[in-house]
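Possible regression after last week's pipeline update?

I re-ran a chain I had predicted before the update to compare outputs. Posting the input and the new output here so someone can diff against the archived version. Not blocking, just want to make sure nothing changed silently.
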Amino acid sequence: MIDDFDLNAWFVREVLPLEPALTSYIRRNWRVAEDVLELRQDIYEHSLIGARKALPANTPAYVFTVARNHLINHAKRARIVPIETVADFEPLQVEIDMFETERALGARDELRHAKEGIDKLPPKCREIVLLQKVDGMTDRQAAESLGVSVETVRRQIKLGMKALIDHMLGGSGKIVRKTYPRRSDHEVLP
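New output (post-update):
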């Protein structure tokens, strides 16, 4: 038996995102438009009752099978069973992207992670990265906007993007500037 918390979490996470497709399925297969919302609620109820024993491995297939069976049973009980009613039920060929929610959550996490990396950049570098990568400005436009040279913009974008990539890959995300050894006073040039 699945406890109420897990059952409700499953319903919100996996069943509710199917609502537009489920509503469309009911509308296509039921002739009385006024019954659509009530039928959908009945399907939700039957889905929850069935899932209480064990959560289904393939939620969309499960919900649409429950929907199909419920519509057939409802038609039989209503005694409006012209052969077309049952024959018109489309096979369960619903194109549903089961990983859409996971991808959306993953994208949100990546966006948050990228924002953290951008926030670590020095102010001028951050501003240049945002102007070019978010606002879509060219090197020249960003330079004019900030009153700096195009070369400064190019150097800052290069440093900023390297630091951002480092951050996204789990590094410190700090700007690393090349250091050149200084000539000492005692050094003899050839």
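Follow-up from reviewer: compared with the archived run. Residues 4-92 form one domain. Marking as no regression found.
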